[in-house]
Amino acid sequence: MLVDTVTISVKAGNGGNGSVHFRRNAQTARGGPDGGNGGNGGNVYFQGIDDILGLQEFRFKKSLTAENGIKGGRQNLFGRNGKDLVVKIPLGTLVTNTNTHEQFEITETNKKILVAKGGIGGRGNNEFKTATDQAPHYAEKGTVGEEKELHLELRIIADIGFIGLPNAGKSSLLQALTNATPKIGNYPFTTLEPNIGMMGNIALADIPGLIEGASKGKGLGTEFLRHTEKTKLLVHCIDCTNTQSIDSYTTIRKELGAYSPTMLEKPEIILLTKTDLIAPEEAEKKVKDMENVLQKKVFTVSILDDASLTTLHKTLEAFISS
Ligand SMILES: Nc1nc2c(ncn2[C@@H]2O[C@H](COP(=O)(O)OP(=O)(O)OP(=O)(O)O)[C@@H](O)[C@H]2O)c(=O)[nH]1
Ligand SMILES: [Mg+2]
After folding, report:
1. How does DSSP assign 20-37, residue by residue?
2. Residues of the chain under the 50 pLDDT cut
3. Nearest Cα residue to atom 3 of ligand 1
């Protein structure tokens, strides 16, 4: 389970001020008050959206503001109401007011939840006319729109997890199959924190590399495996240029089992990666040898071979929808 969190501030629009104005035209030199009312400020609403990556845009846009109401005009002209702001928030996001600690969860896509109420427009001087004061020289100010700091937390459960030794090409695959842009490097332990990406509506998680002894804290340890505990499928990535592929496979399985025996019961796909780096016949032989020893089907992929990526995409999709 990956946790995506962000703190944002929302500000509803202020109410527009009422206007102080008196009728003046060719016929009326000293007319009565005609200052109009200000418009209401726009409200801020949250609305659910089915996109687990939806919080990411708030990395750059942390403050959200609805439009202010327009101030009243002459000739009793009402100011326009400020436009409401409807913010799309991923389903399953827990929203906490950092000040009051009030909480609610986003559970529906067709309901707008009011999170900050717009200010009320002030009344123009026309509305303050009384029997004793026919020419009020004052109007109401619009009230200030609500402003809140909100903490948003989304717990993402990945459907599929990529595991394997460092440098096996896990992040490259995530990048090739999804919209994610993980860091990729020709050295071990490029990935320090799990990455997540969407392949259609399937969430893929790329986690740091595992090495022998990881369950005892070697390398980056195994703590991040908790992000794959709830996945429906593990994709075990093995670099095809690795001459010890069977050993690597059993090493990783040992570490998975040491982390939690249930990890070994999870369905898995064995995937030989980077097949463009060896001759096709060699890749074929490698697949056969591994299948013989492991008694499991072995898949192949290269990020430079679109057809292999399409096949992998379909295989993963079929698995999740079955
Ligand atoms: N030729 C070729 N190179 C690849 C392929 N996939 C990955 N690579 C390269 O292999 C290196 C490691 O790739 P990463 O995707 O960072 O590997 P990783 O498994 O995420 O590595 P860690 O995060 O360290 O565990 C990079 O230099 C990639 O460019 C492939 O299909 N073909
Ligand atoms: Mg990586």
Report:
1. --B--SSS-SS--B-PPP
2. 1
3. 274
